[in-house]
């Protein structure tokens, strides 16, 4: 295609030049011939115009197709940290580690500058790094290994990951009337084997990945059957409503932006969901797939079981990137392993006023507290998003069980504080 466009443009240019020269030489010739030449000239100009247009289009295509340049701009030396930079990136990217890694590249050409771009550009990052492919985790291991170890509770270089969706949970409390638990959601991230991750893909790969995922999704059956809605062409109102209702990812996340994960937006992005929106899949956001099971109330068993079935069916159709050490490969090291975040939106108006106790309970059960409008959000509604923080080195069943146990203890404390407040 590109070669054809190129040939066409070159031909048009030659044709236009020839027509111009001819017209000069024959300026004294008879009027009929001059008119003929003028006609050729017009054709030549028009052909040159369209040829040029095609070339510009080809160029744009090239920019999109070959956009593997560092997301964070040029390689400009060891980062200039400010007082606000408090990330694990800052902690572990010592000048020595920087020197050792600065000229390395993965087999897809991902660089250290790309790995650290988001954490340098966003001083409030907690972690600050993203991988561009599976290889990033080994090539830049001197940086990733200590970050992984600290985030995933001591998971070392020799650690082995294990996966288990089958073990039954001990989770009898369902809170179906949502006295405390508004909703339960469990998601896992997945990326395709044989491709770079989102920050490392080019436009062609991005579109191929979307196509493969949608083909896989279209084969799902029963309560998992649904429809794919590409972001491109979706009305602003629909997208905003879906995001507000906690179904769709938000647009313009600055951490992803700086990591190069929002390139060519909204191309290749979209959301699949079943009729009831209890099973959803985000396509080409931070990870190539975010497979989500969610519903109102606190029946964590049902949510977990639905997710397990979905993952099982999907991995028969799509090969996911996985290794025995890091489990499922993800863009951000916090998501490695299970790539699972099991969360509840839970009403804890009394406990959340006692921030120290709330945080201590979260720490005890390795849980993370977020606002209910997604990561990096906060409000004072008294409803919180509480989820497992570790994802690597523990099975899916273990992590969901841990989240359930922690939430039950938080709810018990909430009841106690509420009763005290009445006296
Ligand atoms: P991720 O789950 O991928 O880590 P976010 O924290 O940004 O990403 O959450 C994505 C969306 O999922 C947000 O709209 C958030 O409100 C919603 N969400 C998360 N947990 C729950 C839950 N338990 N119930 C309902 N919505 C949830
Ligand atoms: N890069 C962000 C930070 O360092 C987010 C890290 C974890 N969250 C995520 N969605 N990967 O704070």
Describe this structure in words.
The protein has 423 residues and is of the alpha+beta class. Helix 1 runs antiparallel to helix 2 (31-65). 43% of the residues lie in helices and 13% in strands. It folds into two domains: 2-65; 181-422, Glutamine synthetase/guanido kinase, catalytic domain (Creatine Kinase, Chain A, domain 2, 2-Layer Sandwich), CATH 3.30.590. It is built from 13 helices and ten strands. The model is unreliable at 1-6, 15-29, 53-66 and 68-73 (pLDDT under 50). It has helices at 2-25, 31-65, 88-92, 95-101, 112-121, 136-139, 141-151, 203-218, 236-244, 254-259, 300-317, 355-364, 396-422, and strands at 181-190, 226-230, 270-274, 279-283, 289-296, 322-323, 327-328, 340-347, 367-370, 383-388. The longest helix has 35 residues, at 31-65. 38% of the residues are buried. It has an eight-stranded antiparallel β-sheet. Strands 6-7 form a two-stranded antiparallel sheet.
Please give a quick description of this structure.
The protein is an alpha+beta fold.
Distance between the termini: 78 Å
The assigned structural class equals: alpha+beta
Number of helices: 13
The Rg value, from CA coordinates, equals 27 Å
How many individual domains? Answer: 2
Biggest sheet, spatial arrangement of strands? 2-3-4-5-1-8-10-9
CATH class of the largest domain: Alpha Beta
Q: Order of helices and strands, N to C?
A: HHHHHHHEHEHHEEEHEEEHEEH
CATH homologous superfamily identity of the largest domain: Glutamine synthetase/guanido kinase, catalytic domain
Query: How many runs of DSSP E, i.e. beta strands?
Result: 10
Largest sheet: 8 strands, antiparallel
CATH architectural group of the largest domain: 2-Layer Sandwich
Portion of residues within helices = 40-55%
The CATH topology assignment of the largest domain is Creatine Kinase, Chain A, domain 2
Could you say which small molecules are bound to this protein? adenosine-5'-diphosphate, arginine
Shape: globular
User: How much of the sequence is in beta strands?
Assistant: 5-15%
Q: What oligomerization state is this entry in?
A: single chain
| Model regions low in confidence, pLDDT < 50 over at least 5 residues | 1-6, 15-29, 53-66, 68-73
Nearest-integer average pLDDT: 88
């Amino acid at each position: 295609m590109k070669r054809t466009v190129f040939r066409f443009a070159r031909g048009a240019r030659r044709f236009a030049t020839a027509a111009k020269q001819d017209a000069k030489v024959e300026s004294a010739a008879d009027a009929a011939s001059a008119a003929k030449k003028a006609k050729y000239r017009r054709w030549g100009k028009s052909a040159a115009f369209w040829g040029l247009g095609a070339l510009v289009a080809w160029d744009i295509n090239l920019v999109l197709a070959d956009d593997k340049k560092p997301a964070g701009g040029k390689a400009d030396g060891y980062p200039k940290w400010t007082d606000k930079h408090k990330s694990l990136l800052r902690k572990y990217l010592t000048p020595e580690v920087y020197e050792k890694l600065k000229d390395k590249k993965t087999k897809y050409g991902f660089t250290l500058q790309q790995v650290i771009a988001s954490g340098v550009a966003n001083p409030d990052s907690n972690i600050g790094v993203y991988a561009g492919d599976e290889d990033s985790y080994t090539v830049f291991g001197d940086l990733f290994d200590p970050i992984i170890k600290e985030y995933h509770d001591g998971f070392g270089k020799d650690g082995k990951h294990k996966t288990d969706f089958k073990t039954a949970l001990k989770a009898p409390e369902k809170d179906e009337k949502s006295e405390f638990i508004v909703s339960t959601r469990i998601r896992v991230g997945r990326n395709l084997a044989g491709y770079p991750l989102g920050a490392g893909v080019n436009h062609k790969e991005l579109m191929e990945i979307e196509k493969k995922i949608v083909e896989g999704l279209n084969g799902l059956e029963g309560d998992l059957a649904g429809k794919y809605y590409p972001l491109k062409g979706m009305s602003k109102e629909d997208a905003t409503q879906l995001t507000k209702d906690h179904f769709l990812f938000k647009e313009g996340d600055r951490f992803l932006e700086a990591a190069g994960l929002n390139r060519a937006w909204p191309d290749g992005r979209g959301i699949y969901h079943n009729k009831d929106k209890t099973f959803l899949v985000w396509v080409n956001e931070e990870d190539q797939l975010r497979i989500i099971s969610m519903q109102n109330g606190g029946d964590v068993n049902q949510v977990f079981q639905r997710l397990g079935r979905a993952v099982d069916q999907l991995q028969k159709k799509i090969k996911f990137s996985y290794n025995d050490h890091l489990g499922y490969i993800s863009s951000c090291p916090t998501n490695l392993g299970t790539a699972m975040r099991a969360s509840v939106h839970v009403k804890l108006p009394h406990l959340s006023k006692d921030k120290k106790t709330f945080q201590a309970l979260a720490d005890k059960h390795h849980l993370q507290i977020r606002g209910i409008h997604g990561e990096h959000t906060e409000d004072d509604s008294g409803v919180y998003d509480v989820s497992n923080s570790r994802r690597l080195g523990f099975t899916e069943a273990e992590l969901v069980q841990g989240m359930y146990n922690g939430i039950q203890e938080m709810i018990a404390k909430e009841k106690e504080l509420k009763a005290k407040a009445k006296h």
